[in-house]
Specification:
Elements: E1 9-13, H1 18-29, E2 33-38, H2 41-50, E3 57-62, H3 68-81, E4 87-90, H4 106-134, E5 138-143, H5 156-176, E6 181-188, H6 197-200, H7 203-212, H8 221-232, E7 243-246
Parallel strand pairs: 1-2, 1-4, 2-3, 4-5, 5-6, 6-7
Length: 253
């Protein structure tokens, strides 16, 4: 049975490229009205153009997720242009402050927390009360990382924020469950996107990375999008508060 999101409204942050773009495309292909948000209009417009002709639709809205006023405007514009939000994908992320733990600055930690954790928390507070009021349930998907499941040398900031998002997912899942609002996290391994280019752009380094993967290749954005579609759909009606690891077997080693 094909997953369907017909009649649903989805909001995907960081939807202009990479994993967010792949999720938005998959949702639109399943019939959803999808609002995509990011800072760069050109990425949003390109994604929207590529999705023309799909059963659903793509609506681009420029938003800096680190700014509370932008988030409030994003939710308001989504409701005006698409309707009440049924699905939220917290995908926007940043990864600054890579390096030895003792060299991490307050600024790097605070900025990463604001994008990777606070933005999701703020959107939850803006959207979930309305979901509860409508009484029709909903699905929230947080894009975390395997970096939040195991220590990552020189990755204190990113790993800590993703670990926080995973634990918040569990708490939200417990608290929102009585309202049939499901909250789940996806933990990708190394996915070949612009965001992770630092890790795979060098051919020699990429060959070494592939050798560490049981499946023998780096993951692609569409392989995360398939999981997001499942979690967003009614087929996952009994799934909440969980973490889905999609890493080519990396954490199994």
């Amino acid at each position: 049975m094909a997953f369907t999101l017909e009649g649903k409204v989805a909001l995907v942050t960081g939807g202009g490229r990479g994993i967010g773009k792949a999720i938005a495309q998959r949702f639109a292909a399943a019939g959803a009205k999808v609002v995509i948000a990011s800072r760069k209009r050109e990425n949003l417009d390109k994604t929207a153009a590529e999705c023309e002709g799909l059963p659903g639709s793509i609506i681009p809205i420029v938003c800096h997720v680190g700014r509370p006023a932008d988030l409030a405007n994003l939710v308001e514009q989504t409701e005006q242009q698409a309707g009440p939000i049924d699905i939220l994908v917290n995908n926007s992320a940043t990864n600054i402050g890579q390096g030895p733990a003792l060299e991490v600055t307050d600024e790097a930690l605070l900025k990463t927390m604001e994008i990777n954790v606070l933005a999701a928390h703020r959107l939850i507070r803006l959207i979930v009360p309305k979901m509860i009021e409508r009484g029709q349930g909903g699905s929230i998907i947080n894009i975390a990382s395997i970096a939040g499941l195991r220590p990552q040398p020189h990755g204190l900031v990113y790993s800590s924020t993703k670990a926080a998002l995973i634990m918040m997912t569990k708490v939200w899942g417990i608290e929102f469950g009585p309202h049939r609002i499901r909250v789940n996290a996806i933990c990708p391994g190394l996915i070949q996107t612009d965001f992770s280019e630092y890790f795979w752009s060098d051919e020699e380094h990429m060959a070494k990375l592939k050798a560490t993967q049981p499946l023998g290749y780096l993951g692609q954005p569409n392989e995360i999008a398939g999981a997001a579609l499942y979690l967003a759909s009614d087929e996952a009606s009994y799934v909440t508060g969980t973490t889905m690891v999609i890493d080519g077997g990396a954490t199994a080693k």
